[in-house]
Amino acid sequence: MLIKNHIFGSLFIAVLFFLYLPLESRAQQTATVEGTVVDRATGEGLPGVNIRLLDTSRGTVTGRDGRYSLEIPAGEAELRYSYIGYESRIETLTDLSPGEVRTLDVSLTSSYISGNEVVVTGTRSGGRSNLESAVPIDVISVDDLDTRAPQVDVNQLLTYVAPSFQSNRQSAADESEHNAPASLRGMGPDQLLVLVNGKRRHTSSVINLLGGKRGTVGTDMSVIPTASIDRIEILRDGAAAQYGSDAIAGVINIILKEDTGTLSTSATAGVYREGDGETAKVNANYGFALGEEGYVNITGSFTNREPTNRTGDHDLHVYTPGFAYPFDQNPEEARAADNAEIQARGKTRDDFKFHIGDAGMQIASTFVNGAVPVDDRGTEVYFFGSLSNKQGTGFPFRRLPVDGGNVPEIYPHGFQPLTKSSITDKSITTGIRGEYRGWEIDFSNSFGSNAFDFRVTNSVNATLGASSPTAFDVGGFSFSQNVTGLTFAKRFDRALSGINVAFGSEFRIDNYGITAGDEPSYRNYGIADSVSNGIEVGKVDTLGRTAGSQGYPGFRPADEVSAARTNIAAFGEVEVNLTDDFLVAGATRFERYSDFGNTINGKVSARYLLGRFLTIRGAVNTGFRAPSLHQVYYNKVSSDFNDNNRLVQIGTFNNNSRPADLLGIPDLTEETSINYSLGFTLRPFQNVSLTTDFYQIDVEDRIILTSEFNVSELPGNIAGELREYGVSAANFFTNAIDTRTRGVDLVATYNQPFANGSQLNFSLGANFNEVKVQGAVETSPQLEEQADLYLQPWDRLRLEEGDPQSKVSATLQYDIGRLSAMVRGVRFGEVSLNTGGAFGEPQTYSAKFVTDLSLTYGLSEAVDLTVGSNNVFDVYPDEHLYANSYFNVFKYPPSQHGFNGAYYFTKLTLNY
Fold first, then answer.
1. Engineered SS bond to 202: which of 448, 666, 766, 884, CB 3.0-4.6 Å?
2. 605-650 per-position pLDDT tens digit
3. Domains of the chain: residue spans and CATH
4. Cβ contact 864:909 at 8 Å
5. Contact, 174 vs 475, CB < 8 A?
């Protein structure tokens, strides 16, 4: 109800704003401009050049031969021609008569990939060249990548082309198996802010509890179709003073397509060398005009990805007692006896292998982006939104026949449960922007939600015995966010060399919920009253069997949550061009949260141009990240392995719970940060560039999910109460550590056209990164004797070295005629992990070099065929040490570039 009232209120304000602007709509007569856009050096037509009528939403793109045609108002007009890898150009037309058809041929000068593009992220001044920005910003053209690259979703694409970005799929990791978290500069997924068209996008409802990036909440970018994206801008610098919470590591701004008049479709099919993980993907994008200057661009996408399996040959007993123990008494004799029992039952050892690999996934998404001018002064109503659904199939640990969670009457040979997810993601942004007395005004409202419904099949509740169902609704999560914003911006040209001023306000409402599963998914039916001398004295477990649905116990009614919070923000920015070469910028932002109070942050940055060849830039900023509602309110009892590698019930209790109160766990507060960056851009030649940026990010009061506290080792009164929750271990979210991240980003590009019409593009990117925990871990007095469990050595290792500490990516593309060849090599640096916990040992996995290769041929003016491979040389990570493999179940870590080997694909693309 709170969000509904807020939306209606926002719409009412929007109407008032709409009426207040001087909207002097009037019909106008039009003229037509047409021509060809070519490469200045070669004279070849350039396909896909974006042509935009300045101060309007009207525009078009060139066809394969570089030709274009655009209807524009008669009189005077300015057209901007922009294309990735080329210098943008503005042409002015005058004295256009109604009905006139004027020819305007344009040649563009080759720049270099992402070299001098106008960016809008990190500034509200209307955009500037990324070479002239005061902080590092990458510009990635997705259209070209979507045609040639083997990767099929945004997370994969960015992992291979943006060295400071990393995303790994998880295996046997509950909810995280259905939602790959992503990070920037080795920070957490929740320290990276994602925008769409400059507006904050909602996060996932899922919190990552197992696998990498433990205890964090990120934004699910996999549901954004690559076909809907024009470009991605990555701001590699703290920006909380500009955009608010989460922007500690940086900002990713996804800019949607505005094209009209072109139908773009593609179909992709691929498979791993092992013969699994078959992937099929189809995309369609089309834009059409609304009236004379408006547009609507619509994208539909469907992806089907089958699961993979890269398990090892496990050393677990199958039909003999002692599940979760290896053959440690007499391995050869024990294994022989076990194999004899397996053979006697008509089975083979392969029948009891675990399924460890990527989850299966089906993703259907629709995105729309549009704008409608409402007068001849550039005022427009704009809108964009999405609707998507993901259906996933994950693979928890296999239950062998002797496991206490098995019911032999149902599964005489054991079973591997399946987790089934249904994730619905929705968003809608509407707004109006225009000019009033020189001020650019933008009023908008953005609503987004993510709902995660979870089921477990091929499972059992052992406490029900043979009467147990085999499929369970285990409950789910929901998260929604509504943001209303109003921004004013103006440039004062006569002050110094120009001053840009912007200010505004935002109001946000977040909602988080957990819903319970059905009763058999969580209940222990063996619990009975304990009676002494006719008096009930407590509860006892009469069966001693694992309760709830195996693979993922359901949420109990006591776990249900429906929580909300609000925050209001006010911000201001000033960019002062002291001279044409010297820019100084400052920003400040105040926010008030309903649950933890106020925060104020600031940023100062500067850039100095030394001629047209060298730019020096630097920034200092403070930042913050509000604890997510997920971290504040999440409750769950789940199955995991304890220090003895036994499968046990572990409770994650929120900070408002009785267990948290017993153990002195304080309320969560915001993380705070200070970020320093210093770098330069060098352009010694027209077609060569180099950028280098050093950074340091200090985060205080960083929120972690603690390791598991053993209930039996807690004081008697506390242990007694916790046992009533049916758990043998417990963990919590708490502000416990400080971290320091240091590193350097390097980007080099080279672009060379040749006289025969061919073109060579080369880009090199590198990130070298180090994350370290600073000082002592902060503990509660009640847990001082178990202080080492706040951040176990293996959790510290995962935090500090679980992402590649270096990554180097080199891409070479050569185009000649209808043929285009692309080769990319990525060196993923070493990582260190201890996936076995107390049972394992630290292991360093060596650096790996992965090669992508693709060949694209234009079958006709409208059709391209691409064939290629990701990881063409079939490179795998180092195998686990035995101690880290859970008795050989896990063969590879889910780190660096993944563990699936070579992937081959073919793609057909149509542009008409």
1. 448
2. 999 998 878 999 999 999 999 999 999 999 887 655 554 545 567 7
3. 2-108 (2.60.40.1120), 118-314+353-911 (2.40.170.20)
4. yes
5. no
